[in-house]
Amino acid sequence: MTSDPHPIHPSHTPTGVLRLGVFFQGVNSSTVWRLPESGDQVAWDSFSRIITTAQRGLFSAFFLGEGLRLREHRGVPLESDVAGRPDAQTLLAALAGITENIGLVATQNTTYNDPVDLARRLQSLDLISGGRAAWNVVTTDNAWTGENFRRGGYLDHADRYTHAEAAVEIARQVWRGEEIEHVGAHYTVRATGRLPRSPQGEPVVFQAGVSPEGRDFAARTADVVFSPFGDRERAIEFRRDLVERTLAAGRDAQAVQIMPGAELVLAETDAEAEEKVRWLRTQQIGPRQALDLLEQYWGRDLSAFDPDGPLPDVDPEVVVSGVTRGAGFQFEKAKELTDAWRAEAAAKGLSILEFARSRQGSRGGTHVGSYDTVADELAELVRLGAVDGLNITPWLVPGGIDDIVDHLVPRLQDRGVYPSAYAGPTLRENLGLPPLA
Ligand SMILES: Cc1cc2nc3c(=O)[nH]c(=O)nc-3n(C[C@H](O)[C@H](O)[C@H](O)COP(=O)(O)O)c2cc1C
């Protein structure tokens, strides 16, 4: 279905179809692991139940993130991180065997993986799944992770994307069975792709990382961007910017789809959903997690501060890499950021605990409301062309998408913005991407 040319950018036409993905994050501060109905974040049952439910709801894709080193604070894993994540490709290969249509997206970084080996493994997943594999290309933002690897934390921000672009180019050459002679700044490769092509040709390429370099990289190379901009205003702004960059890269305005991350809190009525989100925040963030969050930015021990009191009246420790490790945080901006937070909390009269809860769920965008309210909101976003889909992080595992599949999907179908069947066996088809030449 195609709607009118839209007001966001004159060259871009909205697809008018919402594609859903589910992002099984594992380590994070948004999934509640302590309820009686909470599962186990490394148990097979958690993965198999979520992906089976998602497929029942005609989701396009099941995503796994990648965390190669558990984040720590003062020598102890972050309260929010629970435990490490199993390897994405191992899990997806097993999940391919119990599913038929849903896409299998592996987040894999280009900074520490070697492209020929990675490409061959992704292509293998694509073959055994009948053309359902995708690579979510990330660069991974911390030297802390790098310490796990022989080459160490060796790439600064701009270099990471030069490296990523070479890695994707080499991977595509492997997939296309080309002879590769790559001599680059970071590595030299001589190889020839030897596997046959899958029913979708080759894995779909997602990209996650939204700095200017990350956006240009996506504009040149990606099929889909997994963005952190889910609320209306930022989604529109991001679409406009990405279309500009995609056109500048010589590609069609429609070439790159956008799926922001999202948290959905749904109920029969708006009032019940508002009540539910207040309860959810108390489950996600307790006094210990609230202090933990601030300590990641302050970079120092804040255990002497009362979670029910105001934000700490001390300055952060501004260092390149301090006691808080791997938080993905811009340490040099610590002072600016913590000053802004203190001002915000003071203006709103929020305690440490209340402030931490108020920040929860804010990054990708949270949709709170009755099934009908949220269906209307999402239908509008996709008709406008602000997004092509959503990548939902369930706040409960493994039952966290049951209400979406049972109550939201039918309402999206009623509004004509959601598929009524899988378009075909491959991910490329189910994302509405053009077939490869
Ligand atoms: C929505 C989203 C999801 C991401 N998921 C992962 C992940 O699972 N593993 C990882 O190492 N990095 C992940 N990243 C981080 C990227 O690897 C990247 O390092 C980071 O966004 C910094 O790049 P940038 O400056 O271009 O934004 C994610 C980023 C975004 C925006």
UniProtKB/TrEMBL annotation:
GO terms for molecular function: monooxygenase activity; oxidoreductase activity, acting on paired donors, with incorporation or reduction of molecular oxygen. PANTHER family: ALKANESULFONATE MONOOXYGENASE-RELATED, C2H2 FINGER DOMAIN TRANSCRIPTION FACTOR (EUROFUNG)-RELATED. The keyword Transmembrane helix does not apply. Keywords: Flavoprotein, FMN, Monooxygenase, Oxidoreductase. FMN binds at residues 107, 157, 161, 211. It holds the Pfam family Bac_luciferase. Residues 38-386 form the Luciferase-like domain. It comes from the Bacteria. Belongs to the NtaA/SnaA/DszA monooxygenase family. Gene3D superfamilies: Luciferase-like domain. This is Luciferase-like domain-containing protein.
